[in-house]
């Protein structure tokens, strides 16, 4: 039995071709990598030159600190407990020509035999360039328990008229150059006998 012609339909299948982009050659990849590397190197050099220029203009110098005077007032050491006030004059010198210093926080600690016996928090202050600032601080010890050996050594030194103590100044500072202010830096100064 033959199927009538009208039941056959001719379907043509056409291939749909998508043209793929050409693959990047190894030469193009090397060229792009070289351009990226050169851009990073140029950026590093520009930042380095800017830092060098700023450093040469500012010519930063280290801040200098010293203890000009020291005394012990209201000294009382009984049963291994210390009550005393240490009178100190701390000199802070800023030798920089263009940089001023913000002392945002500062505390002065007095230690004897490796043990902190007194401290005082200093109010924040601003120090201009080429300036000597004298801070009169009175770290106070109130009922500080001392080990027996440390108390004996302190009594013995006190009879000679002098007591060797260590002074530690800790704080957070910022530098100011023109209108620019730096981030915070930690300040740690040790004054040993």
From TrEMBL:
UniProtKB keywords: Membrane, Transmembrane, Transmembrane helix
One GO term describing the cellular component: plasma membrane
Biological process annotations from GO: defense response to other organism
Source superkingdom: Eukaryota
Protein's cellular compartments: Membrane
Main location: membrane
Domain Late embryogenesis abundant protein LEA-2 subgroup: 90-188
Membrane-spanning ranges: 31-58
InterPro entries found in the cross-reference section: LEA_2, NDR1-like
Topology term for the membrane: Single-pass membrane protein
Name of the protein in its database record: Late embryogenesis abundant protein LEA-2 subgroup domain-containing protein
Organism expressing this protein natively: Nepenthes gracilis (Slender pitcher plant)
Phylogenetic lineage: Eukaryota, Viridiplantae, Streptophyta, Embryophyta, Tracheophyta
């Amino acid at each position: 039995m033959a199927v009538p012609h009208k039941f056959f339909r001719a379907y043509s299948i056409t291939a749909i071709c998508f043209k793929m982009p050409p693959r990047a050659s190894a030469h193009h990849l090397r060229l792009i990598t070289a351009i990226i590397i050169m851009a990073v190197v140029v950026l590093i050099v520009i930042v380095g030159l800017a830092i060098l220029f700023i450093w040469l203009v500012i010519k930063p110098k280290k801040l200098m600190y010293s203890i000009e005077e020291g005394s012990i007032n209201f000294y009382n050491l009984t049963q291994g407990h210390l009550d005393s006030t240490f009178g100190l004059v701390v000199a802070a010198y800023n030798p920089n020509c263009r940089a001023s210093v913000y002392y945002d926080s500062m505390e002065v600690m007095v230690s004897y035999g490796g043990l902190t016996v007194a401290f005082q928090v200093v109010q924040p202050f601003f120090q201009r360039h080429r300036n000597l600032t004298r801070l009169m601080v009175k770290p106070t010890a109130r009922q500080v328990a001392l080990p027996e050996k440390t108390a004996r050594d302190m009594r013995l030194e006190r009879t000679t008229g002098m007591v060797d103590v260590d002074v530690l100044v800790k704080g957070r500072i910022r530098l100011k150059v023109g209108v620019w202010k730096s981030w915070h830096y930690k300040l740690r100064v040790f004054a040993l006998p």
